[in-house]
Amino acid sequence: MRIPGGLAGSLCVTLVLAFSGTADAKPRLAGVFDLTGTPERIAAGPDGNIWVTLSNSSDDMTLARIKPNGVVDEFDPAAVVNPEGISGGPDGNVWVTRNGGVAKVPPDDPMNAVDFDIDAIGNPEEIIRGPQNRLWTASGDQLVSFLPANPAGFDATTIDGVAPSARGIASSGGKLFVADFGDKRIVRMTPGGGARSFKVGGGPQDVAAGPRKGAGYTNAGSVPQTVGRIEGNKKPRKTKVPNTDPFGIVFAKDRRWWIANFATHDLTILNQEGRARRFRKLPDNSGPRYLAKGPNNTLWVALETSQQVARIKGVKR
């Protein structure tokens, strides 16, 4: 285990964002924390900490844990090799995806992680806690789920399409939403495999649960680049965000979507009416890629280029 020291800065810059018809929100950057490698995915763990999968670590670390006070611990469990997606599970453990399987990471003893083979995960992506108290992930043309007590008894359902290439996944209203990059669509699926497609064009990257059993998504492959919202069976509603390279997305406690803009090193904040504002207080040339909601009205952003994680406070309604 390595403890690289954690606090790379404690920047408290207040940004006031006002949307018509809602109370003013005052999110502020409140810390940027160094990692030894590139952050991949990021998630809140069941232990109240933030967990990150790492690649290209100078110390061969594969996981990072960031406590609410900003202290960073890094780990290299033998069972966690080239991890990608990460999520807190209903069993109180942290789960990660890797090529050909998953690993269970006890939050209080990460070095004793346990590995499980799941051959349906040929291209590891995001993993989430979803319906039926199962863990869910999408890989290639497969929607995969399993109970934490029995990963070997996984279920896999084919996502029908011309060339499905699953990226992000989200759970909303008891259904699963999958960003299908290859088929240029968002697929909404029931746990039993029933599906409806929403064509969005371009190449959607990520998706997040939203209000009214809907979802928001990012589309870095559209021209111009867009972010969008899906509700019911309506046609997706799009907002143009040109030249930002929108990637990760979450629906935060302020009832707005927050989107990581890799190209412009900032965040888009999208309200439910489709109006967008920018949060521009991230470090220059930091390359935000994914985000996660944390405790106490915080938002955490994985900064790929600068190999850091940023903490934003005051993200509340």
Task: From the structure above, extract its key features.
29 strands, Methylamine Dehydrogenase, Chain H, 49% strand, disordered N terminus, four-stranded antiparallel sheet, mainly beta, 317 residues, 0% helix
CATH architecture: 7 Propeller
Order of helices and strands: EEEEEEEEEEEEEEEEEEEEEEEEEEEEE
Bin the strand percentage.
over 45%
Helical fraction equals under 10%
Main sheet specs:
5 strands, antiparallel
Given the helix and strand composition, which structural class is it? mainly beta
CATH class: Mainly Beta
Q: End-to-end span in angstroms?
A: 38 Å
Q: Per the principal axes of the C-alpha atoms, what is the gross shape?
A: globular
Number of strands: 29
CATH superfamily label = YVTN repeat-like/Quinoprotein amine dehydrogenase
Mean pLDDT rating: 92
Looking across the biggest beta sheet, what order are the strands in? 1-2-29-28-27
- Indicate how many domains the architecture comprises: 1
| Total helical segments | 0
According to CATH, what is the topology? Methylamine Dehydrogenase, Chain H
**Low-confidence sequence ranges:** 1-24
Cα Rg: 18 Å
